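FAQ: What does a ligand-bound record look like?

Like this one, built around adenosine-5'-triphosphate:
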Amino acid sequence: MMDTNVESCLELDLEKNDSPLLVIDDFSAGYDESLVLKDVSLKVPRNKVVALLGRNGVGKTTLLNSILGLVKSSGGSMTFDGCKMDSLPPDQRARLGIGYVPQGRDIFPGLTVWENLNVSLRVASPAKGEVKTRLEEVYDLFPVLKDMLKRKGGVLSGGQQQQLAIARALLLKPKLLILDEPTEGIQPSIIDQIEDAIYSIKRKGEMSVILVEQYLDFAKNASDSFCILERGYVVQEGPIERLDDELIDRYLTV
Ligand SMILES: Nc1ncnc2c1ncn2[C@@H]1O[C@H](COP(=O)(O)OP(=O)(O)OP(=O)(O)O)[C@@H](O)[C@H]1O
Ligand SMILES: [Mg+2]
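The answer part, i.e. the structure of the complex:
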């Protein structure tokens, strides 16, 4: 297993296809004095969707930010695609293939929809023929974007901004897409489109997803497995079929 050097990680060509894409092992982290995540272990299989669940304030976003390298670790390790990434800064983790749609909407409000998409294309810089394919993929998922290319991001509805944020992440073709509460404050018809986008990602089988979600019907439909955090600990995990009313009452109902 390689350590610290992103170039060697990118070139790494072990027989890694059977191993999970992301392995979090006994990971702890927090802010200043307070430890938020305690000995968290989690595996994200390739091309599967894992729902990361838990009540407000249990540490879901902190775990996502830790995967991105934005929160300082106080113990444990993370391995992504065969690469130990604990000492890698956020930009290098992104280069390994981690895409993030943070809680709230991560777009440039002063740029047009097209300019927002183009920022991702410039970062990804795919081959010329590939640009069109990638754009068509995201327009297929979210047709409204194609109709609004000239409009400023900031004037789109909340749901449209969320679609734009997801589209921006998808254009980068990450191996892992991280979605932090994509349905928060969004109307049902757009939630359906985001759900369809996740189905489509699963069908294509080229990306894993970590989905933080409070809307449980959506999480159940879209995910293959779940992991529940409580007070910074993983308290339950398993295939999504096992997420029954008893677990929901015990760990998720407010
Ligand atoms: N930047 C920060 N500095 C200090 N404490 C923080 C910071 N961010 C989060 N926390 C604290 O860490 C704990 C976990 O917060 P986190 O945002 O990870 O929870 P969450 O599960 O994502 O909650 P929600 O469902 O409300 O989004 C909370 O007690 C929160 O107040
Ligand atoms: Mg959060």
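Follow-up question: can I read anything off the structure? Yes, for example: The first strand starts at residue 2 and ends at 3.
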